[in-house]
Amino acid sequence: MAAGGWSWFRFLALGVSFLKCLLIPTYHSTDFEVHRNWLAITHNLPLSRWYYEATSEWTLDYPPFFAWFEYALSHIAKYFDPKMLVIENLNYTSPATIFFQRFSVIFTDVLFIYAVRECCRCVNGKRAAKDILEKPTFILAVLLMWNFGLLIVDHIHFQYNGYLFGLMLLSVVRLCQKRYLEGALLFAVLLHFKHIYLYVAPAYGIYLLRSYCFTASNADGSVKWRSFSFLRVTLLGLIVCLVSALSLGPFIVLGQLPQVISRLFPFKRGLCHAYWAPNFWALYSAVDKALTVVGLNDRRAGSRISAYCPSFCDSPGNVNLYFHINIGPRGFLQCLVLCALSSFMFGWHVHEKAILLAILPLSLLSVQRAKDAGIYLILTTTGHFSLFPLLFTAPELPIKILLMLLFSVYSFSSLKSLYRREKPLLNWLETIYLIQLVPLEIFCEIVFPLTPWKLRFPFVPLLLTSVYCALGITYVWLKLYVSVLSERTPVRQKAE
What we know:
mainly alpha
């Protein structure tokens, strides 16, 4: 596409950046204090004390690259308000502090915007359209840059997911462009910024092994086993080792690696991060609560299931990715989303915001095939609705409803227009399920607070949201699983 043809992209990027600026005065969660504290820790303390400092309950529990990111930000923050860098200033929220932290998120989103542009360049151009609004590239740009979940999690609730997802999407693009070493490097760096991306590491590992380490294929497209390159697998190993050494090396020298690992993987926090996160554990907790009433529960089961289920559920998809022909970038993306969803469904102490790890890469698939677009619409609507409890203050109620409504209407209308010549994206049962989110929200936000049950059973709205959304996300997981396992052509030893 010619340079002039991308003027719409700049318009979208500026528009979403302006919206983010408008959200600066909104409510922010405890994560705001978490990152302020990390600024103070990395700015004032030597490296040897970063992962030991515990003045605040919000201790540093991200990998070293993110700690260095906070360290770099702290040297800019001191010019806005030095008091935000005082470790003892717990819950410090001066106007200058709010301004700096909010704009630091907006500024680092430049990487995400760049990654979105690269994703748009890789979109299959078979579905050409005269109207720019119906082009897959335009639709994808809106679905990614204006993603409702990312907007409220980063720019209201407060986190730095934008540039991290930018790294992930950029690594995906590089793999799709067959720039394998660059993609591997970006993903290795990403893991040392935020370890939640370990969820999708199996998909990366298998795809790189299948597509990069084997240099040739048979006539039928199956892997030629004798073409395995030890040099290439060594190069991949060197990238992982060098990035890991750069990140963890100083703490290994200090003898602090066990302490860092204990902060990154705090198993003592318990199985569930929040009982309303819409995954298997939401359903499990509801059943467990019911069984507790009659004395028939077994809490040890949760630990056993969470320890084995993510790997078990990932394995068939990844084995399929490895052994079947014509996998290509779309097959990799499918398995990446499946890894993300499997870990979200069954992982230990899963955060509700982790659903974005599946929604964003699924956006790339949604503009390439109608079947994937239908799966995307169910997941994005249900997953985004499940984030509503993050914003529980009254002033944010109209904001989250309006933003969700605008994004959902655009998602449905644009994808329906893109696939207008194909069968409906959703069946009647899926449509009814999504429509029921409306009365559920009315009950949780308007009806229930007016009832006498509010004081006695304050958890009911969260429980209903959690369980209902968990049913939808479980359905999507099963549907995607069947799709991945059923559409590949089996490897044959010889071409027929």
